[in-house]
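Hello again,

I reread your note about wanting to compare the complex against the isolated chains. To keep things tidy I'm splitting this into two emails, and this first one only covers the full assembly. Below are the input lines as submitted, including protein chains and any nucleic acid or small-molecule components. They are followed by the predicted structure of everything together. The single-chain runs will come separately.
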Amino acid sequence: MSWKQTKLTEMLSIATPIIQAGMAGGSTTPDLVAAVSNAGGLGTLGAAYLSPEAMREAIRKIREKTTRPFAVNLQIPPPYEESPQVTRRMRKHLQSYEKKLGVPREEKSPPSISFSDQMRVVLEEKVPVFSFTFGIPEPELIKQLRDNQTVTIGTATTVNEAVELEKRGVDAVAAQGFEAGGHRGTFQSVADYPYIGSMALIPQVVDHVSIPVIASGGIMDGRGILASLALGAAGVQMGSAFLTTLESGAHPLYKEALLQTTDESTVITKAFSGRPARGIRNAFIQEMERHPEPIPPFPIQNALTKPLRKFAAKQNNLEYMSLWGGQASALGRLEPAGELMERLQQEVEDLVSRF
Amino acid sequence: MSWKQTKLTEMLSIATPIIQAGMAGGSTTPDLVAAVSNAGGLGTLGAAYLSPEAMREAIRKIREKTTRPFAVNLQIPPPYEESPQVTRRMRKHLQSYEKKLGVPREEKSPPSISFSDQMRVVLEEKVPVFSFTFGIPEPELIKQLRDNQTVTIGTATTVNEAVELEKRGVDAVAAQGFEAGGHRGTFQSVADYPYIGSMALIPQVVDHVSIPVIASGGIMDGRGILASLALGAAGVQMGSAFLTTLESGAHPLYKEALLQTTDESTVITKAFSGRPARGIRNAFIQEMERHPEPIPPFPIQNALTKPLRKFAAKQNNLEYMSLWGGQASALGRLEPAGELMERLQQEVEDLVSRF
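Full-complex prediction:
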């Protein structure tokens, strides 16, 4: 049996067990999603910060470019408590940055997006696969997705979270290791974020659930893919590796920065969004490490820093952008997504033939 | 070619690329070391806290039990600065524990051990393999070891450290991932401990050195071994998996505690030794997290907490012992080391035949 045939590829009707992660923030263009799906993997639209209209438009564009399955990824809104005083003080603190960088006033109020409006689009468009993070959809929503024949993929950062996802009827689980770039998907223990490395997390999750386990965190090439399959995963989800592809909508300087990282370049920080996420340690992260006041919870801090991040991107200023990336980002390449998909599969083939 | 034949097995003249880690503190009995070596792997005497006499005796016992290669592991004394005030305050703080637990006075002054005396034993006994952590031996020492035909294995927690080890003439490098139990081997950046997960660390180290890379951190069974080889490692080093073997000298309750962990049970703490190390989060760690005063550096804190730890072990009190273990300790079993070695190899064989 080929390494490509797993219970995940069967469940998703894809040819190779490689999922491009649904990264929020504009990198997962319809071109990227379609290229991955056309190459036999599963492309994912990272729709968390898209309006319902923008989501629908992106989904339709993807469907123009591919007839293969693809996924849409959203964040389940996590519970949080706002302290108006903490928010006020952080807003004031960030205004000093905005002044320093010259952020224009019109950048300052991002529209808020409703999760239920986003979910309506997922249901109406009958997307083939719905993946999510930060929580578990309500039972009614899971039922509607099932009625729609939409396959569901949840995100777990611990064995317990994976077990909970299976119990709630989710079809597959992405086990997110400590190495992963971007936001931690943790939802059972918001106060105390558990950090489990992929090498330890994947086999333990595999032993505790019967749904397919998708390894994620630090996987950048054929070596990581075969390692994940050896650990018992039925497939992999890769984020950073796709961020630097030509089709990715990530800022060109951000792509370059990822390729220039070392294993020591990234940290997990709450500075940008109020929720732990891994990215390249730049000036904003370092300055916020020294800032003595508390950071408002997600999504408040995320909204508060958005104008700054957006303006910094326009100014090509990497020091104030959120440069999410995993601990092995240095292994990436600037290449078309289809070529990356070809290369990954060839690398696995070559390795398999050695054992 | 069999998965067992790697440049590591060739270099070490062993039959299978599995190294039992040189854990300090009494778990690596001559019986354990010899059992692993007799099973075709490389057993390691964790000699860091042994007197030269005890080291010599253990080495001779190992040689009575096996004619195969084995290793001796030591800690290269890391630089540190003592603040007498910090030490004094910590000693006072720990006295409150000693009173509470009733630690007798004679337990209170552990003899200090000289690294150069330990090294003399390594050289005089012409041990086949010398592995080390926390630093790199002086060039003269590396030369003497080479003249002795002793193979050297250093510990790296980052790509930079691995490159430095190779540059200094070390023969092989153990790449220690974030998941690993026990002390972090970090030596280039004492102020800022880098935590890189195995999935990200191993391939990046492999790409930057030409000496054999030994994966360590979170590897507990055949899945972890094959995953490590897929990532490019020439072998693995496993600690927690051997702690629970019958021959291990670890406290019986400590073995049981390891087997009852989950993926979330361990944390990296400086509480016991002044240096970050991963272990089961017990009362002492939790109480020290709340203790507002600074912890003296290694090895001061290690010496200060030794009477408490030793007495707690005698009292079967797990809450004040250092319960070092990795993030996948739950995958261990209570079994003879020879059976574990057999099982590991069989598991890899079974997996290899599936790809």
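For quick reference: The longest strand of chain A covers residues 70-75.

B.
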